[in-house]
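Q: What would this complex look like in 3D?
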Amino acid sequence: MPARFLRAPIAPTVSDDGLYPFVPSISLDTLWFQVAGTICNLKCTHCFISCSPSNHSHEMLTLGEVRRRLAEAIPLGVREYYFTGGEPFGNPEMLPILEETLRQGPATVLTNGMFLSPDRCRSLKRIFDASEYSLDVRVSIDGYTAEVNDAIRGAGTFEKILGGISNLAGAGLNPVVTVTEACEEAGSPAGRARFLDWMRSIGLERPRLKVLSLFRIGAEEGRLRAYESWESLRGRHLTEDESEKLQCSSCRMVTSRGVYVCPILIDEPRARMGESLAETLRPFRLEYGACFTCHEFGVTCRT
Ligand code: SF4
Ligand code: SF4
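A: Here is my prediction, written as C-alpha cells for the whole assembly.
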C-alpha cells in the first residue's frame, strides 16, 4: 500500500463572511466512486440523492474512467476505495472494476442486494480470493419485516434483499447489513440487538450491522421534512479534533461530472471541487444541513 499522503493540518478557520466553518483537507484516505451515477432500479423514499431508474444527473462510470482515477490515487496515498450509486451492480462493468481496484487496495461496494444472484456472488468471491486486499459488500435493508422495509424500498424488495444476502453468505462472503434510522427499531440499543438476532436467524453467524443516520435532503426531504434553519454549522468554529472526525477531511467522491467533496453532497453544485483529485485537496465550507448531521451525529459513510 502506498505511503499516506499527509498534509500539514490547516488551522480550523471560518469562511470569509465569518458564517460557516471550513473543514481542512488533512489526507486522502478514502476515495469514493459514484460508479452507478444516480441510476438505480429502486426509488427509495428516503434516498438522499433521489436515485431512480430515470435519474441521470450523474451517469455511470466506465472501467476506463475508474482506471484513470485509480492511477491518480496512487501518488496521493489513498488507502481504500468505496463504490456506490445508484445501484453499483447495475453497472455492466462492476466486476472488472472491482477486480482492477482490488489490485491496488481494499474495496467496499454499497448495494441494494437486488442483483446478487448466486453466480454473481461466486464471481465476487473469486475476485476477493485472488486479491491480497479485503472486499466488503454492504447490503441495505430498512427493517426485518417485509412490511417495514417495503414501505421504504418498494413492494417485494424485502424478499429479494434476503435472497441477495443469502447468496453472498452461500458464496462465503459475510456481508455488512446497513439500515437507516428510517427503521425506528434501529435507533435504540435494544432495537439493534433485535436486528442482530434477526441477522443470526437468517444464517449470518457473525452478523455485521451498520446503522446510518438520515440526511434530510433529496427524497428524504419529501418523506419526512427538510432541514430547519437551526440545523446548521453557521457561526460554529471546529476544533482540529472535530475536523478530523468529519469524513470530508480525508475523502473525495469521483462522479461522471468531476470530483465532489464527499458522498453526500453530489447534488450541490458548490460541492464539486474540481476535475483532478489533487486540485480538490483544499478546505471546504460546511454550509449545508447535511454537514450539521455529520457533525452532530458523528456520521461516516465508511464501514
Ligand atoms: S437508497 Fe440506495 S437503493 Fe434506494 S434508491 Fe437510493 S441508491 Fe437506490
Ligand atoms: S455533508 Fe458531511 S461529509 Fe459532506 S462536506 Fe458536509 S460534513 Fe463533510
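A: To summarize the key features: The pocket of iron/sulfur cluster (ligand 2) is lined by residues 23, 246-248, 261-262, 264-265, 284, 286, 288, 290-291, 294 (CB under 6 Å). Residues 1-6, 8-12 have pLDDT under 50 and may be disordered.
Q: Very helpful, thank you.
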